[in-house]
Amino acid sequence: MNLSAPPPHLDRLLQPATAHPRAWDLLRSLCDDVGARFPCTEGDVAAVAWAQEALGLAGLERVHAEPAEATLWHRGAESCSLLLPRQQSVALTALGGSVGTPEGGIEAEVIEFASLEALDAARPEEVAGKVVYLHHVMPRMRDGTGYNAASAVRMRGPSHAARKGALACLVRSVGTDSWRAAHTGALWYHAGAPQIPAAALAIPDAELLHRALAEGKRVRTVLALGCSPMPVGMSANVLGDIPGTDLGGEIVLLGAHLDSWDLGTGALDDGAGCAIAIEAARRIASLPARPRRTVRVVLFANEELGSGGGRAYASAHAAEAGRHVAALEADQGDGKPWALRVPAAMRESALARALHASLAPLGIELDPGVSRGGVDLAPLGHLGVPFVDLRQDVTRYFDFHHTANDVLDNVSRVEIEEATMAFSVAVWLLANAEESFSGVNQGEGTATRADIAAR
Amino acid sequence: MNLSAPPPHLDRLLQPATAHPRAWDLLRSLCDDVGARFPCTEGDVAAVAWAQEALGLAGLERVHAEPAEATLWHRGAESCSLLLPRQQSVALTALGGSVGTPEGGIEAEVIEFASLEALDAARPEEVAGKVVYLHHVMPRMRDGTGYNAASAVRMRGPSHAARKGALACLVRSVGTDSWRAAHTGALWYHAGAPQIPAAALAIPDAELLHRALAEGKRVRTVLALGCSPMPVGMSANVLGDIPGTDLGGEIVLLGAHLDSWDLGTGALDDGAGCAIAIEAARRIASLPARPRRTVRVVLFANEELGSGGGRAYASAHAAEAGRHVAALEADQGDGKPWALRVPAAMRESALARALHASLAPLGIELDPGVSRGGVDLAPLGHLGVPFVDLRQDVTRYFDFHHTANDVLDNVSRVEIEEATMAFSVAVWLLANAEESFSGVNQGEGTATRADIAAR
């Protein structure tokens, strides 16, 4: 790649579409016409049809859906009061995958722990027969640092509590807001631990409980969760290609996930990523030249509760994994990208310098860390596919993430457009690079579910 | 008043209580220990006891409760879906005082109007049998401009819709946020119009409906409101005095309202005002000198739905109305005060200059407009009591106002302390002024319910 002249057509990719903010328009259609896209619901089915139409309209070819395992789970009615002793109805929502409470709900005393370690250190007789409340506070950070630790408490807390004999487990919502909207998210029941009901309290309600317990009050809770168990169903990944020219057998993959939680309309998580990916591809497909390598958009199924889409893609495409020269995922909302992260082996390459040089005018720095990919890409990472990360600003993302407030109104038209430009530039450069770097990620860590926000 | 030397003890009133942010501590106790204070509920009864204890602890004398009429109304269960045609469950809440829907709810087509005027101009056959949706957008302004116009649509809309034969009336929430929390608030049924159910949609849900209708879609709604009618009950105003010295027969009244809506814990509306009033009075009561005039704190009952507290106070104290030389109300949340407003006849007085000179270091300007008081003070205004307004910054207030998000977590410890200082300074100066200005407000406008935010 010639660094003395700007790569061809970048100026067009960097042109803001002020008259028609297309990424936002796509997102509006997804949120308004389809709505929430929880696996195996009507919304999920509608989304798979919507995505195929959108990729076709964007000029992609070979658009199709591929089956992916998905998790069936139904939230049902949910309610909770704290007896402080005055009765305060609180906002909470079940964690994804939770079992429900017994008929008639649970009434029990609440015991608080500041960490899984503190819970693990408790005597079982302190915990047995009570509802465990885990008070872990997530900080507000541009790079999402703190989400890993907080989501580990959410995911693992219920089984840790169950091992001590707790009847149910409540967690402080994993989020950074101060609104009465609880943040859902997956839990992981450990094999061998009893499965107990688990839910997240909205942050103000969690803080109210925390203050009461800190004052030494005995607090009881009345909890009813109507959620029901998890057989496995089917959903679909949606794929589309911009076929490459002389290196058309090689693939640059741009992913996002099409599924969403049920509470909002999945505008930021991950409707924004879908809109970014589709519109970035449309911008590339409408350039006067084809990319040398094939650009593939994959909108994954079922990221939120089981990662069935990522596993299905890696399994179906294992034979061509070596031809995936780079994979990127847009799953950090609408935030403006602020850093580029590449595989360690690529950091000193001319390609990395070219990527950075082209992205720097958008305010994007070169991150010294190693690229991690996204949850959906993790199974590809295990097959040696190298990741390129555009780290987006998530300062506000965790105010809305996994809540009823994850709706179109909280998406920035300006920021989503900037993110679209950055992804289109990165994908275009990767698809046209002189060098190839397939396999450079071999042996490096790939993202786990808990890593997603810390990329 | 000698303007060349600072008035006595002002330095102490302006000392921030950093070690113990007492206004916030009071508010925490009110929100946590009492919670919501909707008239004629357990919370209301607890609040009346709490307020008497708090005024006593603050050093006020003659602390007692006086009966006030209050409105009984019960929200009940509420639910609403839009059929876009895809079904979207939306966040809404009944307007205070609304009748419920018939057993089984209402299902009907939605018709939108941008204003009461547009609704009034519609042909009845366009509206009859439908649910009217009123789309009025409130702007975000430091001084709350726009709340009057928006709340007029909320209050009057249901009867305007009923006169055209509508089955129910929905309004866009009167607020400035983008969260899935609907803003309740009182409605006024007009005599002679049928009483139809009325509710506010959360702003993102209102915008979703608006977009669908703007695209020409036919949208139906399924609406169930379990609210029940309004007999009249009893609550109480809570009063306490700091008796004055040589002019002790004259009264400077500092008011706030003790009741709140049921959805949050009334932290900003008007727990903050109660905390400001009590703590401002405590600061004055703990000075080494008594005020010349009596300082009276009144925590009014039932501001939100009927204004029974304000009417009861004016009625019980009509004989001493002429001895009320000034009345102030704190009912604008925790916001930092930015302007002082006095009666027109007082604007050129030495007292107004002294007030302004003492408040200017807090960043408070002299507003050229005429003081309006608050909703609770309006009946006193009709008796000629002059108002002094401290206009607080309400830029963020209407994000939370009348919603489930009106909780302690959304109150600023810094701002509520600044507001407390400003009110204590204004009250202290008024209570010690050389001049008196009783009656200067005669014939000037007093606040109506709809004026509250525009003071």
Please name the defining characteristics of this protein:
homodimer, 455 residues, alpha/beta, Aminopeptidase, eight-stranded mixed β-sheet, 16 strands
Explain the layout of strands and helices.
The structure is a homodimer of 455-residue chains.
Chain A: H1 10-13, H2 22-34, H3 42-57, E1 61-71, E2 78-83, E3 87-89, E4 92-94, E5 106-113, H4 116-121, H5 124-127, E6 131-134, H6 147-163, E7 168-172, E8 198-201, H7 203-214, E9 220-225, E10 232-242, E11 247-257, H8 267-285, E12 293-300, H9 308-316, E13 324-329, E14 337-341, H10 350-359, E15 365-366, H11 378-381, E16 389-392, H12 397-400, H13 413-432
Parallel strand pairs in A: 5-6, 6-7, 7-8, 11-12, 11-13, 14-15
Antiparallel strand pairs in A: 1-10, 2-3, 2-9, 4-8, 5-9, 10-12, 14-16
Helix pairs in contact in A: 2-8, 8-13, 10-13
Task: Summarize this entry quickly.
2 copies of one chain form a homodimer. With 455 residues, chain A is an alpha/beta fold.
What report would you give on this structure?
- The structure is a homodimer of 455-residue chains.
- By secondary structure, the first copy, chain A, is α/β, with parallel strands linked by helices.
- Chain A has 2 domains: 287 residues, Zn peptidases (Aminopeptidase); 148 residues, Glucose Oxidase, domain 1 (3-Layer(bba) Sandwich), CATH 3.50.30.
- Chain A has 13 helices and 16 strands.
- In chain A, the strands form 3 sheets. In chain A, strands 3-2-9-5-6-7-8-4 form an 8-stranded mixed sheet, sandwiched between helices. In chain A, strands 1-10-12-11-13 form a 5-stranded mixed sheet.
- In chain A, helix 6 links the parallel strand 6 and strand 7.
- The longest helix of chain A is centred in the C-terminal third of the chain and has 20 residues.
- The two termini of chain A are 27 Å apart.
- At the A-B interface, helix 2, helix 3 and helix 7 of A face helix 2, helix 3 and helix 7 of B.
